[in-house]
Structure formats: structure tokens, C-alpha cells
Automatic annotation (TrEMBL):
It comes from the Bacteria. It comes from Microvirga thermotolerans. CDD domains: BKR_like_SDR_like. InterPro entries: NAD(P)-bd_dom_sf, SDR, SDR_fam. Belongs to the short-chain dehydrogenases/reductases (SDR) family. This is SDR family oxidoreductase. It holds the Pfam family adh_short_C2.
């Protein structure tokens, strides 16, 4: 399938590893000019060298770094056609006892500043009458995940914003979608499995085996599989898909 992404300019947040890296790699393989952003320049450079991208630094919890990223990437690429909003996951934990400070900090990093970055880059997409905004969310938006209360509470806000924005910009050739990963084999998943093991008194191997048993595909997903889904949504072939959530979960989530 021809994606027509050659020469398109893409900015992928949280792309030094994991899901963001998989998306950046997939876009680069399709000929897109990719900018990678992560919390450290060391991480961004290492990933950028692997996929042939440009490295940038951005902590989504800091609005000044969001503003600088929009300015620097625009200067380097001349604009952004594909924007992938991928913030780091918050620490695992229950809904009880989360401090107000933690709620505010997570909301800034996982919602407010992602919207801020989009507002910087969206006018160029509208002017060029082409744009792809893709939010990496969580299957917890559809079916809350135990012990991930902060993520379960905040990521739905990004979905509601995205669906609303989608209807506002569709006539300009700009689509706004979200991808909900299931259990994809990343360092983040290892962290969550380890936390679950500690919380329940089981081994990590037992936790992973039980999780895989609940996935119809019988395994964890691969980073490249997730990246491929994002590449499709970024492509011209996906021009009639907007305001949607694409689940990449091996059939794990049974509700819609």
C-alpha cells in the first residue's frame, strides 16, 4: 500500500524508545522527514541516529520546552505535517491518596502541554490543507486498568479534546485520531509487570503469563506492529478516518 508519506514532516514525542520510537522508525522507513523528541538529548540522539531523524529535547511537563520545541522543529523542517502526541506514562498506583500536586503535574504533562504544542503547529496544517494529529493513549481509556489510576483519569481528556478538534478541522484535510495500545512489549510494560508482581506477591513471569492468557492473540504485541498502525493513520490512505480510536491490543479489550 502506498502511504505517500515521502517528504512529509513528522514530529514524534517520547520517541527515544518504546512506542514513540516504533512510530518514528515506521514513518522514517516510509520516507518521512522525522523529528524525534524526548526528555534528554542523549536519548533523542541515540534514537535519531538509528532511524535517520533529527533529535530534539522536550519534557512535556514544561511549557517553555513545548514552546521551544515547536519553534525549533518548525525552523528545522519548515513545518510539521504529522504530529504524534506521546507523553510518558505516570507512575502506577491507586486512585486513593494521589496528591493534588501529582494530579496537576500529570495533567500538565499528559494533556495541557500536548494541546499547547498542537495549537502551535495546527495553523500550518490548516494552511497547507493536510495534517495528521495522532495521540498515543491507553486501553485504560476504554476499560480502566487496575493500579493505573492517573492514566485512567487523564488520558480520556485527550480523547475528548481530539474528537472535538477532529470535527473542527476535518474540512481542512486535517485528521485527529488516537491509538490505544494494549500490552506491547516495551520497557514501560516491564515496569508495570514488575509493579504488579510486587503488589500481588507473584513472580514477574507469573504476571506476564496471566496477562498473555487474557489476550486472544496469546502474546504481547511488538513495537513495530504498533508503529505500523500509526503509519497507516498518518498516511493519505487514512484521509477519511478522523475522531477515532484505533485499538492495537491483540483483541484484549472486549468493550467499546
Amino acid at each position: 500500500m502506498e502511504t505517500n508519506l515521502k517528504g512529509k514532516r513528522a514530529l514524534v514525542l517520547g520517541a527515544s524508545k518504546g512506542l514513540g520510537y516504533g512510530i518514528a522508525q515506521g514513518l522514517a522507513e516510509e520516507g518521512a522527514r522525522v523529528a524525534i523528541a524526548s526528555r534528554t538529548m542523549e536519548g533523542s540522539k541515540a534514537a535519531a541516529d538509528k532511524v535517520g531523524a533529527l533529535p530534539f529535547v522536550c519534557d512535556t511537563g514544561k511549557s517553555d520546552q513545548i514552546d521551544a520545541l515547536a519553534k525549533d522543529v518548525t525552523a528545522a523542517l519548515g513545518g510539521v505535517d504529522v504530529l504524534v502526541l506521546n507523553s510518558g506514562g505516570p507512575p502506577p498506583g491507586k486512585a486513593q491518596g494521589v496528591t493534588s500536586e501529582q494530579w496537576r503535574a500529570s495533567f500538565e504533562a499528559m494533556f495541557v502541554n500536548l494541546v499547547r504544542l498542537t495549537d502551535h503547529l495546527l495553523p500550518g496544517m490548516i494552511e497547507r490543507r493536510f495534517g495528521r494529529i495522532i495521540s498515543v493513549i491507553s486501553s485504560g481509556v476504554i476499560q480502566p486498568i487496575p493500579n493505573l489510576a492517573i492514566s485512567n483519569a487523564i488520558r480520556p481528556a485527550l480523547v475528548g479534546w481530539g474528537k472535538t478538534l477532529a470535527s473542527e478541522v476535518a474540512s481542512f484535510g486535517v485528521t485527529v485520531n488516537a491509538i490505544a495500545p494494549g500490552r506491547i512489549a516495551t520497557d514501560r510494560l516491564k515496569q508495570l509487570d514488575a509493579a504488579n508482581a510486587e503488589r500481588t506477591g507473584r513472580s514477574v513471569e507469573e504476571v506476564a503469563a496471566a496477562a498473555k492468557a487474557g489476550i486472544p492473540a496469546g502474546r504481547y504485541g511488538e513495537i513495530a506492529e504498533f508503529g505500523a498502525a500509526a503509519v497507516f493513520l498518518a498516511s493519505e490512505r487514512a484521509s477519511f478516518i478522523t475522531g477515532s480510536i484505533l485499538r492495537v491490543d491483540g483483541g484484549q479489550i472486549s468493550c467499546t
